[in-house]
Write a structure and sequence with these properties.
Layout lengths: L4 E12 L7 E8 L2 H15 L5 H23 L4 E7 L2 E12 L24
Antiparallel strand pairs: 1-2, 1-4, 3-4
Helix pairs in contact: 1-2
């Protein structure tokens, strides 16, 4: 059996600041190194920066030039990190958390318990 592996759980959340809704998870990513985790945020920020308003674009590039170094250092110290930009009324937040990924059991050639046959998936609306 494989051993647990250290890594980083990365998420991207969006929040409409004009509405009373909870933030929505837009994307997630499992990274196995600090460079891989902060690169996920960096690539996304570089990709969307031309579409951002001037203030949000400045915030994005400020993190890309200066904040990214501190983010990487914090990740190497196993500290969680957050990067946010606000474009008009939308806040986009990336979170990176140190985690331990647990290996999953391999199900090939294994008989599943009888209760799995009683499971009925929900009908889609």
């Amino acid at each position: 059996m494989k051993q647990p592996r250290r890594g980083y759980w990365c998420e991207c959340w969006t929040e409409d600041l004009t509405e009373q809704r909870r933030p929505a998870l837009l994307a997630s990513f499992d990274a196995y190194t600090a460079p891989q985790a902060d690169r996920w945020v960096a690539v996304t920020l570089r990709t969307i920066s031309p579409a951002l308003d001037p203030d949000a674009s400045d915030t994005a590039w400020e993190w890309l030039y200066d904040g990214r170094i501190e983010t990487r250092r914090a990740l190497l110290r196993a500290e969680p990190c957050t990067v946010s930009v606000t474009h008009e009324d939308i806040r986009i937040t990336w979170t990176i958390r140190p985690v331990i990924f647990l290996p999953l059991s391999h199900r090939q050639c294994t008989e599943l318990p009888m209760c799995t046959h009683a499971f009925k998936p929900h009908a889609s609306d």
